[in-house]
Amino acid sequence: MRAVLIGLGLAVALAIPGGGNAVEKYVITHDVWGWYQQYLRNIDNGTKPGAFAITKDGLGAFYSWCQDIRCVAGTTYSHDAVTHCERSSGMECVVFAVRDKIKVDYQIYGAGSAGSSSVTQAAATPPPAPEPAPALAPEPTPAPEATTKAAPAPAVVPAPVPAQPKPALKISITARVQERIDVYLRNVQSAGRVWAFAVSKDGTESGTANCPPAGSFSGGRSCWPATGSTEDLVKREAIARCGGPSECILLYAGAQKQGNIEIVAP
Question: How many domains does the chain fold into?
Answer without folding.
Answer: 2
